[in-house]
Amino acid sequence: MMLSPDDFASASWELVVRVDNPNEEQKETKLRVSGDLHIGGVMLKLVEHIKIQRDWSDFALWWEQKHCWLLKTHWTLDKYGVQADANLLFTPQHKMLRLRLPNVKTVRLRVSFSAVVFKAVSDICRTLNIRRSEELSLLKPSEDYFKKKKKKDKNNKEPIIEEVLNLENSPTVSGSPVSPGLYSKTMMPTYDPINGTPASSTMTWFSDSPLTEQNCRILASSQPPQSPEALAEMYQPRSLVDKAKLNSGWLDSSRSLMEQGIQEDEQLLLRFKYYTFFDLNPKYDAVRINQLYEQARWAILLEEIDCTEEEMLIFAALQYHISKLSLSTDIQDFTSESEVDEVEAALSNLEVTLEGGKAESTLEDITDIPKLADYLKLFRPKKLLLKAFKQYWFVFKDTSITYFKNKEVEHGEPVERLNLRGCEVVPDVNVSGRKFGIKLLIPVADGMNEVYLRCEYELQYAKWMAACVLASKGKTMADSSYQPEVQTLLSFLSMKNRNSNSQVASSLENLDMNPECFVSPRCAKKHKSKQLAARILEAHQNVAQMPLIEAKLRFIQAWQSLPEFGLTYYIVRFKGSKKDDILGVSYNRLIRIDAVTGIPVTTWRFANMKQWNVNWEIRQVAIEFDQNVSIAFTCLSADCKVVHECIGGYIFLSTRSKGQNETLDEDLFHKLTGGQE
What we know:
Blueprint: H1 5-11, E1 12-19, E2 27-34, H2 39-50, E3 59-63, E4 68-70, H3 77-80, E5 88-92, E6 94-100, E7 106-112, H4 117-128, E8 136-139, H5 143-155, E9 164-166, H6 171-174, H7 213-220, H8 228-233, H9 240-246, E10 267-272, H10 286-301, H11 309-327, H12 337-355, E11 371-379, E12 390-397, E13 400-404, E14 416-419, E15 424-430, E16 435-444, E17 447-455, H13 458-472, H14 482-496, H15 502-509, H16 521-525, H17 529-540, H18 548-560, E18 568-574, E19 581-585, E20 589-594, E21 600-605, E22 609-615, E23 620-625, E24 629-635, H19 640-653, H20 666-673
Parallel strand pairs: 1-5, 6-10, 7-9
Antiparallel strand pairs: 1-2, 3-4, 3-5, 6-7, 8-10, 11-12, 11-17, 12-13, 13-14, 15-16, 16-17, 18-19, 18-24, 19-20, 20-21, 22-23, 23-24
Helix pairs in contact: 7-10, 10-18, 11-17, 11-18, 12-14, 12-18, 13-14, 15-17, 19-20
GO cellular component, one term: focal adhesion
Organism: Erinaceus europaeus
Family: Belongs to the kindlin family.
């Protein structure tokens, strides 16, 4: 049956669409449409009606009331539920965004506002020549982040003009969205081991990266130290609660920038969100390693992670060394094979510590039956009791420590057996004070048992500490990562050794540094400038011969050896509890922490997790573990989706392996982080 013109008019209706044409005011266009017209047909009608010759391929329809893109062009208006009262905007999918990188440098580039954030970050990292984009994400800074800086701006008559690296005309991002693609396997750039930047024309890992060599060098080079005054003006979290608030702004990886209210040319932070840095390689990762170093550096300087004064001085010495090499004009262009091998070994150790993966043994071969046995001292904290250590004969085998009154009764009944699987291992070291301690927090039914072990010297400490770290992950000393772990610990201890001699005195006379630039403001207040400089130069002697790329890797290693490394904090309320707690999320475990004292209450490991989900009605995350253990909590400092994505993201990253294709299973990521929303 044929429809008459009157019947068609009654079945059709008027749709108002605003056109967001760059450099022009938005104009309203009225179209006569029917519910069975597909979205592609609407856009075609619209372009024909506008009669402007230009490339419209990047434009799409945005539904303002529903806060969503209409990207399925084969769907009809009826299927989407679009009616005459809909406010639609015809706008480019790619818009300009300002990103502050870990090195506090701001880049301005064109980013997809219609792709989910996971995909948008992948494209951003491809543009910036950063591999393993799944480890990074976008963070919307809290008001506190710019608070102090704004105060200073008011006092200054001249506005602070921030230097921005403009990548607006990058060919990768100026047109349609980038295809996922494979990483280019043919790129084998040479690199400079002194300044850590690629030294050949084939400098980028991604064959289609738009970065010029100059821009790549900017992103791969360490920034000059900030002045103490500028440091003091930056926001510093003072408590675990403050640190938790920093994590409230992570964007939802399963939704687009536009859906999350991000405006064109807004400033976001690009940060490493997940602390599992997979397959670091100086041949391709000059930018990635530098940005990782810079994120670690700022975490230390702004006290986002706690460290001892001795550790602060090591970090200061490495920063001073890296800063000197970065500014040096006398850069060597050639390195020996042995130097390359040293860097590769450092990388291997770094990866082993984070991933627990395979690595070649660089110390003597371990015995057939992995076992440690020695006299150590033990202390169990009790109220109203002085800290008195008592000596016992300790035997470490598999993932357990057994201790006896003395060596002679080793085959008899032990005083106690400690199962370290799932425990927290915290270093308690002061090299200058000859203190080599290991703090163990062992999970029990009602919380955590606290045990302190005291070693006599460096090698003993390194062996026992490495064994404890592996045992906490359910691994024994037979694992190939044991010896590299021992070597990493010994390397870190050697950096802490103080070698006071005349060289430091002569260096002080020709002092070329402002020591307050390399330590946190709180640490700087404790010492006179000359005293601080002397201690930094003293520590610098242990790292003075390191090539630049290795120094950055050592800094990252030292960062990851800190007790709080890799913990992302959230303020939560556990089901049945009347007070707020801090939840720490790491790559392999969850930790419940007392918000007042900062002491860990209990630990749950991902290896024992059976399932987890979200009750979206009450915004509660529920997790089930082995042995009928279950927990549930609501998140108070962020949306529960943020916490859920953090947990699911780590589970997803644990599925990576070197043998698999470089292309990520994006569907698996969304399945693990989406919470069946």
